[in-house]
Fold Coenzyme Q-binding protein COQ10 START domain-containing protein.
Amino acid sequence: MAEEKQKPKKSIWKKIAIVLTVFVFVTVGWAYYDGNNVVEVSYTADQIGQKVKGHIVKAFDGNAVAIWGVIDAPAENVWKVIRDKENFEKFLPYVRKSVVKKVDENNYEQEQIFDFPFGTYQLKHKLWYEEKPNTYVSHWHQQQGILEVNRGSWTIHKAGNKTLMEYKIRFEAPWIPLWFGNAYMRQRLKVVVKKLREHVKNIEETNPEYFKK
């Protein structure tokens, strides 16, 4: 009986290439869907609990990333931290340094240095604040910088002795597709809630007089 010829085995590198190709297509497909999946939604502190929610929403004349989370501290304390923008690098991703200049009672100019994954850049923003019953809002709008669009807000809602934080940003860079940037930022910015929780708690434990100034 003639010996059967053995079929050549597929190269391990070919298998790896196939797996990587599938992974890339699935990841890009998910990011495309996630970055374009605009929803209309809002949350209460009870609905969120200790979770962090993030969605793509309509805001600032376009598609924006929105993040919600609960901070176990009074809204007045969290608001003081949010307005302390010269210490943003302690809890906000990519921020290396912030310098704030007061224009008038509720308007400021802010210059920030960001260490983005694609490079280090300096941005200049206009800031303004609103204080309403049970709600505080900090707005920003980029005036100078490499980004095509950079607008957003922090909204601090009173929730008993806790705080419901809502962070929104419309972010567009010339070299990143909008859907990809939104999908990436939606995941990355969830870290903001964790870092802000830790930062507020650390101040309460180590420097409680900070909130009385």
